[in-house]
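Journal club prep — side note

Before the paper discussion, L.F. wants everyone to see what a predicted structure for a comparable chain looks like in token form. Sequence:
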Amino acid sequence: MTNLHPASSSSPIAGAPVLECPAGRWWLCALLGLILLAGGIFLLWNVVAASIVTAIFFSAALVVAGVFQIIHAFSARGWGSLVLSAIIGVLLVAGGFMFAANPLATSLGLTLGIAAVILVSGVVRLVLAFRHWSDYGWVLLASGIVGIVFGVVLFAGFPWSGLVLPGLLLGIDMVMHGLWWLALGFLVRRPRGGMLASA
């Protein structure tokens, strides 16, 4: 026998809030998505300026992390832990201000760091590919080769790559994030069935 009953208010099919997007205010999520999407496209159109902005954000993050580290130091037990934690915090704050004073150099440094991580990651994936060849190792092999090539290209194109890569990554991230919020808004807006059939 089949019974029809109203969908539970906690069910997503009934139009309940999805993540942080209220069903009745779907346009807020869509608006946020459009803003992020527009910002990402703007950054991709101005990658050099975006790279400098990325460097400034990175510097600010270091300062904030350093301040919290210093505050946390006073909750540490023992003078040794307190002093060590405070020194780390001071170094983070000092490094943040130093990087903020020369965001262009910071952008170049970030690029070198990213290139090194990608290159080393590619080599590790090559090793793992041959160790796990029976478990779709060819996928790891292809991924490792791409990573190594990308890392080499970044190093070969330095310092010009340092003017482009951080801003490019930030722009792509904002575009993808904006598309996600936009899709989420329209997903919540879409009419949903109010009745469920259950056996």
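L.F.'s comment for the group: The mean pLDDT is 77. Keep this in mind when we get to the figures.
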